[in-house]
Design goal:
The complex is a heterodimer of chains A (499) and B (390). Helices cover 32% and strands 26% of the residues of chain A. The longest helix of chain A is centred in the middle third of the chain and has 16 residues, at 172-187. In chain A, helix 14 (402-413) runs parallel beside helix 15 (432-447). Chain A is of the alpha/beta class. Chain A contains 17 helices and 22 strands. Chain B is an all-alpha fold and 390 residues long. Chain B has a domain at 90-317. In chain B, 69% of the residues lie in helices and 0% in strands. Chain B has helices spanning 2-32, 35-39, 44-66, 83-107, 115-132, 137-166, 170-188, 226-243, 245-255, 257-262, 267-294, 305-315, 320-343, 349-363, 365-371. Chain A binds chain B through residues 302, 304, 323-329, 334, 336, 341-348, 352, 356-357, 359-360, 365, 368-370, 412, and chain B through 243-246, 248-249, 251-252, 255-256, 258-266, 381.
Chain lengths: 499, 390
Amino acid sequence: MSLELRGVTKTFGSLVANDNINLKVDDGEIHAILGENGAGKSTLMNIVYGLVQPDSGEFLVDGNPVTIHQPADALAVGIGMVHQHFMLIPVFSVLENIILGHEQSTKIGSLESSAAREKILKLASEFGFHIDPDAIVENLSVGVQQRVEILKALMYDAKILILDEPTAVLTPQETDEFIEIMKKLRASGTAIIFISHKLREVKAVADKITVIRQGKVVAIADPKSTQEELASLMVGRPVNLTEKKTIHHDNAVVVKVSELNIADEVGRPLVSNINFEIHKGEILAIAGVQGNGQTELANAMVNLHKNVHGSILLDGQEIVGLSVNKSLHSGIAYVPESRELDGLIGKFSIAENLILDTHHEQPFAKGIFMSNKAVEEEAQKKVVEFDIRTQSIDAPVSSLSGGNKQKVVLARELSRPVRLVVACQPTRGLDVGAIEFVHKRILEEREAGRAVLLFSTELDEVMTLADRIAVMYKGEILSIVDASATREQIGLLMAGVKS
Amino acid sequence: MKKFYNRIAETALLPFLSVIMAFVISGLLIVFSDAAVLKVIGSPGKFIKVASSTFMNAYIALFQGAFFDPHLTQGHTLLQGFYPLSETIVTATPLILAGLSVSLAFQSGLFNIGAQGQFIFGAIGASYVGFHYTFSPVVHVTLALLAGIVLASLWGGFVGLLKARTGAHEVIVTIMMNYIAGFFILWILKTKSFLRPRRIDPLAPNIKPSAELPHLLGSTMRLHAGILIALLAAVFVWWLLNKTTIGFQFRAVGANASAAKTAGISVGVTTMLTMTIAGALAGLGGAVHVLGNQYALTSDIAGSFGFDAITVALLGRAKPRGTVMAALLFGALRTGGRTMEANTSTPLDIVLVIQALIVLFIASPALVRFIFRIKNLQSQGTLASKGWNG
């Protein structure tokens, strides 16, 4: 089945989200839509799936015009969608989630499930999914939950599958498996629209790449193009993806972590026996599959976690047991893993978010009196310094794109006197331009002689930035290797194999 | 200036439309429950005439009872016509303070159901200092108010302490604390120190005249200085929330406790402080009610002020100015309702229907948007507290 879009335009107020977009997806094709955050990819897909009505434009399925006003219409013509944020009910089983919205009753009025179960098992074996239909969704890993979403679409005969940023939530291993799944789907004749801004993946699977910038199709690119070429098309200017590394070592130890153990509320160990040092001007990256204790270790660095035993010396001073506020002010910049949840207050303005940590200090406050003027001046300064793209410093921070949100977090955290930068997944969900900015900024901190502790599940990022790499597995650091280690070596360590 | 109007329209439109709709629907109820109207329901001409006059009479009586009654000016000054307005303000005064208590807690992400209990303790403190001691007038009033504030802030702060230390949810705790306060006042009114001499019913002695809040418009009007205190408190809450580091922390914790914590703000301290100040505000409401209006402590001193305060805070969108307006509206409904009941065949209960409908519409912005076909009305975030685990 093929899908063609002709002249799709959608405006929100004065913003043109999609400008006369033409797109053709053929049978059994993986068609990547590449674009930065805010380029209009998601709007376009929401239009195709009937969640958003276009101002103008036509849809043709197998050459015949169709109208799509709601998701049910899309499903009826064979278009399915897997959203970036899953639409699953956590406490329901896989089976229940899949039949949700299509429930049928048996003659005695109970829920008919045996036919659905059979079909699920058949589809699962066809595509090599290992899925137990009776498993409860909240107990499944993110990668498996995604397969449930895909099954949900396939169950109702989707011939065109829209995958919105499907790898954003996956670990490197899961991503590799996911790419295999896409290839199998293609082989079975399903057309896939694959939305992403990750160049490596797009290059790995796409048959055709449509690049969207500021709501317009700017190019139909060949998957054989280099990453630099694709990135430049996406951003609209030349991009230098490989960062320069100047060796800049100093022997002084800034941070010394020894015998650090972290337990949960009931005393079960989460992280055990952590030892490492970071020198001036050095980046130590903590690599590992998500959920191996990185979050807890990161939180412990600024005392956000209770039940921490051991020692963290910052320039010789013990910081374990300090309040969060004192830890931050002892010279740690902390970029939390989740910008939206832990980094920023969505309802607050950009200006207010920039002083969350220092609102009670001079010049923003005298006693308990806050000075709006000082707060505004600080915001104006930071917006320029960190190139935060916004119309007003009074705009709520939730109105910013992911990249600009991260710039607000960085601007705030780097505004204090800093000796150690703790950055957790600093580029997760960001587009090429923003990643470039964040990487540049982290390297600048390194050059300025700060110690950097980088937590990242992106192997590429770790390999680009780190001077040394520590791999965490099941709450322990398996090994600390030099930056010259190969991807394979680190991949094995991430899987828990210690040579 | 345009920006200013837009902002008003954005924040006030939904409450305003909710109030209008509540009045319209209640009006239908008034009409269709009226015996005179039902008698003529068969003939359209008569029906419209009787129905419209019933409708108008009820709301005119409500208005006259709440704001200005021309009949009262006969043989008196024009000012006397505003006697109902004075009554409205007197009723609204404690409601403003209790409403501010709930609003402040909302801003900090807490659902303070406990304004009732805090109100009671404020009343007990003010009453005791008011009747037991003797001071010069200004000093006496101040000390009596302070006694109410201190008792109530301890009562409220305890909830904050429990939440900060143990994670106990403030909704459950404050509901239970309301029961305790309700029975505590029953008990204390029967103790020797509170029982009025030669009486056995639960009634405390009148406060000394030196502890009374002065009347503002002479002895014929009950309007007392409490309204000034309430308005000052509203300004104080606005200032606290928007101009101080403490308010910044309150709002930060209310909007995203997790991010606030990560930025080094102590959520526990903020919670305790919020509940302490919320308690103080509701307590001040109780104190003002005793010192300006009731003079003697009774077991029913708090009436339903503490619970109406929740509605008032919701209607006022947890903003100080909105809370004041909402409390005045509720004060007007209560006072006007009494006149309506006296002068027309419409019962006072209709006021409860109006109040309930206002809450219903406020709580369902999508419904209001649908009825009035408003597209761009921002939802402004729902005010209800976070889940039980929050």
